[in-house]
Amino acid sequence: MSVPLPRPPVRANPRLADVRYDIRGELSRRARELEAAGRDIVHLNIGNPGRFGFAAPEHLRAAVAAHVSDSEAYCPQQGLPSAREAIAARETARGAHNACAANIFVGNGVSELIDMSLRALLDAGDEVLLPSPDYPLWSAAVALNGGSARYYACPAERGHLPDPDEIEALITPRTRALVVINPNNPTGAVYPRELLAALVAIAARHRLVLLSDEIYDEILYDDARFEPLAPLAGEVPTLTFGGLSKVHRACGWRVGWVSLSGAHEALAEIHHALDLLSSLRLCANVPGQWAIAPALAGPDTITALTAPGGRLHEARRAVIEHCASSEFLDVVAPQGALYAFPSVRAAALAEFDDHAFALDLLEAENVLIVPGRGFNIAQANHFRVTLLPPPAQMREVFARIERCLGRMATTQRRHVA
Q1: Would you tell me the crossing angle of helices 264-280 and 109-121 to the nearest 10 degrees?
Q2: Which H helix or E strand runs over 132?
Q3: Each residue of 63-77: pLDDT tens digit?
Q4: pTM (2 decimals)?
Q5: Among the CATH numbers 1.10.3720.10, 3.90.1150.10, 3.30.700.20, 1.10.150.20, which is that of 14-54+304-416?
């Protein structure tokens, strides 16, 4: 009787070898193991408001509840007409060229729509210009859809802002799109109007599509001003991404949208591709879409959190003040979004490694952060934290971070001695 041969492993898509998502990677898996063993872990790795006691506004909850019975059938593949009309009205009010309900696609969060948009846009080997650091979903979606990421630097020395000349120097005949993340995740940078206008001019000269991730558009601190990209872009084809997850604290509802603007004739083919891809997945989650119109037309519920005295503002203040007094840390004060991106001074800790530090911090201090290289930068001296914990807890977390860095510095000094 013959012995059956062992089955070979099922091969995964080789493109996954170029994909990383450290926000929920091996450190996150280790955190779950520690929690299963009874440890209390502070999760600073992900911008998940509900985990820190934030709630979606009550008028949005009421809108969803009132329409449960209207949500049991598939809706049109582009989304509920009333939701798309509300999004189009806001884009038109902001000055986007040719924004209309027909050019809006609602998806299961911005993440799904980024992937769909790049699938619609890219041919094998096409290049996409991405910020470094970036939100790693963008890099992953480029790789998974056959594209090639080319990174433009946004270093701390420039306030995490890009240099338009450096971006233009990266362009080749294969470059298809320029991605802008504003307000920025992970750095909190908010792009000034003059910089955005320069990026639009580059896209116009080189016939690039602009992809503008604006999910944090209303989360701003101090005197920061958000400038939407589409009004500045005019006829340059622009895909603007937004949603309910951050400004409206409704991450689990998975409601995002993309708005196409620019010259009508330039949008026809990408519109058809997105319509086809939307049809293949039938439709986005229906219940959450009922919250879009009241979210965009209803009261402002975020400014009270980001203004002085508000919870997000005071958590941010705790980070800035700690870094200012730290023996080891610097930070560019975030002007928007839900994160800070501190760096460790080389003079204070010469052999710092972001991943080793993150693992030590988790194991010894019960704090989960994301190493900076998880956001596609070459330097190993950054890490990202979310600003969502209460201010008192944020101060305690940074005391633990300082303690961990102090131990690493002591160990290095002993090795040198």
Answers
A1: 120
A2: strand 127-132
A3: 999 999 999 999 999
A4: 0.94
A5: 3.90.1150.10
